[in-house]
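lol forgot to send this yesterday, sorry. struct tokens for the thing we talked abt
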């Protein structure tokens, strides 16, 4: 498997997407997941084609490629349905320009809908996207969402596979998120079983660790409770051919980075005291990124599936 990571790793220090691509490349990664999700990444302005061109230029200069992209993550409480569809279609166009085969698109959850209602709503949502992008080579991937965040979410492989069967679309597949999977209560947190049932419908991964239902977190493997033997065993057994892509950006965190802010402190006797340790410097973040690469390479080599 190719080892990749996400542009969100440098969200706090990379002012532009080309900056983030260069930093990821300097840390050793040759393959990248392009996150079109934050203010810097979203293609929601008139200059979006110029921004895509700047990404293409950075990829050419670094020799890196994008193996995956993540569409905008807004929900129906923050954006209208038409805005979400329109911007996601821009993301599809960006993927075509950049040669990215797969785009992760979160499901939408209309307020007050039960599980059946959510499934019906998303049948329409993904059908609209597929119809409007007909002829595009870019696959759209649904992602498992934790049952702690949304009780009607696609929380395991069985539900995701059932939805894909219901849709019956060749250009619709699955992305498995190990952190989201670990947030679920047993038995729905059986990641081996979920990956097995998805089988050849699984085209992408978001790999990270956390402590299960205690906190939604995306950190390094070995920093939480995810059993990566269960993940790697399943991936190798189904003959998974996508990238082993990290989404582990909750490391070396800035003070105000959600979901948990750093504790505030005021010096009790010195009113002129200036904090020195608010945010980690770039050099430490870079060391963490290099360790992330080494960790991923170790995991894949242990299962004999590392691809340079």
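and heres what i got for the seq, position by position
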């Amino acid at each position: 498997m190719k080892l990749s990571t996400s542009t969100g790793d440098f969200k706090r220090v990379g002012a532009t997407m080309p900056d983030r691509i260069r930093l990821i490349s300097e840390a050793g990664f040759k393959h990248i997941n392009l996150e079109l999700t934050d203010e810097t990444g979203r293609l929601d302005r008139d200059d979006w084609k110029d921004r895509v061109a700047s990404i293409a230029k950075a990829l050419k200069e670094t020799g890196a490629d994008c193996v995956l992209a993540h569409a905008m993550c807004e929900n129906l409480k923050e954006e209208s349905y038409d805005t979400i569809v329109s911007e996601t279609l821009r993301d599809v166009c960006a993927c075509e320009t950049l040669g990215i085969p797969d785009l992760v698109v979160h499901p939408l959850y209309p307020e007050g809908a039960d599980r059946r209602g959510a499934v019906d709503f998303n049948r329409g949502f993904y059908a609209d996207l597929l119809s409007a992008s007909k002829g595009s080579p870019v696959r759209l991937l649904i992602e498992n969402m934790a049952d702690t965040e949304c009780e009607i979410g696609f929380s395991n492989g069985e539900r995701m596979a059932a939805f894909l069967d219901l849709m019956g679309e060749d250009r619709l597949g699955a992305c498995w998120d190990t952190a989201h999977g670990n947030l679920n209560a047993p038995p729905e947190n059986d990641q081996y079983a979920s990956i097995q049932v998805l089988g050849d419908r699984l085209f992408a991964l978001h790999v990270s660790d956390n402590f299960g239902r205690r906190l939604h977190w995306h950190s390094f493997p070995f920093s939480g409770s995810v059993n990566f033997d269960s993940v790697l065993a399943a991936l190798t057994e189904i003959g998974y051919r996508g990238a082993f892509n990290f989404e582990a950006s909750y490391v070396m965190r800035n003070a105000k980075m959600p979901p948990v802010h750093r504790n505030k402190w005021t010096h009790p006797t010195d009113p002129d005291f200036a904090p020195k340790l608010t945010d980690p410097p770039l050099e430490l973040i870079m060391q963490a990124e290099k360790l992330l690469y080494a960790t991923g390479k170790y995991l894949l080599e242990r299962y004999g599936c590392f691809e340079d």
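Residues 200 and 239 are 8 Å apart (CA to CA). anyway ping me if u want another try
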